[in-house]
Design goal:
81 residues; mainly alpha; 4 helices; 59% helix; Acyl carrier protein; phosphoprotein; PP-bd_ACP
Length: 81
């Protein structure tokens, strides 16, 4: 799966979790700026784990601040699998 495909899936999951988000969601979009609180981030990460079939370790969560961060993490994790 390419990074573009991963980003597209993440954006789809964000829109699913937060249907009220208006405007573009780009790789540089920060989750906080999208209005995502800690509970919504947990829900998003659970959806990501289901969608991509992998677990996001708790120690990685704090560094996942933007869509790009999550894309890079998933691309690296999927390559390692």
């Amino acid at each position: 799966m390419s990074q573009e495909e991963i980003t597209t899936e993440i954006v789809r999951l964000i829109r699913q979790e937060m249907p009220d988000v208006e405007g573009d969601i780009t790789p540089d979009s920060k989750f906080e700026e999208l209005g995502m609180d800690s509970l919504t981030r947990v829900d998003l990460l659970a959806a990501v784990e289901r969608s991509f079939g992998l677990e996001v370790p708790d120690d990685a969560v704090a560094s996942l601040l933007r869509v790009r961060d999550l894309t890079d993490f998933l691309a690296t994790s999927k390559a390692a699998v």
